[in-house]
Amino acid sequence: MFMNHLLQFLFRSILNADFACAAILISYGAVLGKTSPVQLLFMAIIETVMFVINAFICVELLGIADIGGSIVIHIFGAYFGLAFSRTVCRKTEHNDHIHEASSPISDLFSMIGTLFLWVYWPSFNAALGSDSGIGRAVINTYLGLVAATVAAFITSSWASGKNQWSMVHIQNATLAGGVAVGAVADQMIMPWGALFLGSLAGLVSTIGYIYLQPLLNQKISLHDTCGVHNLHGMPGIISALASIGTALAASETLYGQDLYVHYPLLSPPANSTAYQRLYEMDSQIAPGTGRTPRQQALCQFLGMLVTLSLSIISGALTGLGLSCSTVFEPLIRHQLFNDDTYWELPDEDETVIMTESKTSEFVEQPKIFSMKSLPDAS
């Protein structure tokens, strides 16, 4: 019995650590190429503390339902990183930088990463699900991802004016459906609900990359390297708003006894007659506070507001603190988006020579299966 509880504790601890890492990596996407390793190290340490505080407030105190972490992971990570980016780079001109560009090779590797994320996103959303909710979380996430993929391809092609797709849009907006479904993945949102959320997220994410991201950079100098606002921020808010609706609609008629598994605080208080009757039907249900669906919806809304406020304030203050001293090695303009500042890279001439050498070697290989090498049938 003790070992079972210990293994469950370790499993949840590892998952929570994984979720904290996910939030930090999301924040890194907003500041990639504009910060030094020292700044990133201290940013990760501070953000981990703030992430745990925010998760405690939202999950333990407010009792929000957020199985896929769209609120406590995606919204927090995105807006912490955006606020950090706005303050840490305020003294450095980073717009129209010559090195801020992708290459065919980097685009290819990013697309491979997108494929891995797309395939494993359902398991991420369902990791903490109950026995009755895991299957629903996987199916809803897949439907959301499929809808987001279709919406991203359509919107990207339409916006280009040339019926062409953008690698940036497809690499990111196709995943937005997983974020939009996250907070309600194990809820009774029905297949059409998952498809609607995924389509909306794919559309909003792609439009964000095309119009909103350049506008924010131009108007308020909010530079977002990887576009985390479009992939994690706005889809996370869509998911948070959807969780308000599902909380309002929650009832025993819809969920049965599973209602108190998805929303534990809706369970009656321990000493009440209602809980005794409920306990006789299912002894696994824990006592709650007797919260109503309307109160749960309000807590979902408060959880979103708390996460937005705490992430923006803490991210901005962290950026201010890590940019005010040379101890943290802030970058200057010629070091931005440049790997050779901290990494040993081959010279461009050497790279060209190696490439030409490999090409010539490939060309000189004998054509083993050439038609000329076949014997004459005559």
UniProtKB/TrEMBL annotation:
Intracellular or extracellular location(s): Membrane
Alphabetical UniProt keywords: Membrane, Transmembrane, Transmembrane helix
Chief place of localization: membrane
Gene Ontology terms for molecular function: ammonium channel activity
Gene Ontology biological process terms, A to Z: ammonium homeostasis
Superkingdom of origin: Eukaryota
Cellular-component GO terms for this entry: plasma membrane
Domain (Ammonium transporter AmtB-like) ranges: 13-324
Sequence intervals crossing the membrane: 6-28, 40-65, 71-89, 101-121, 133-154, 191-212, 301-322
Membrane topology summary: Multi-pass membrane protein
Family as reported in the entry's similarity comment: Belongs to the ammonium transporter (TC 2.A.49) family. Rh subfamily.
PANTHER family: AMMONIUM TRANSPORTER, RH50, ISOFORM D
Protein name from the UniProt record: Ammonium transporter AmtB-like domain-containing protein
Organism: Halocaridina rubra (Hawaiian red shrimp)
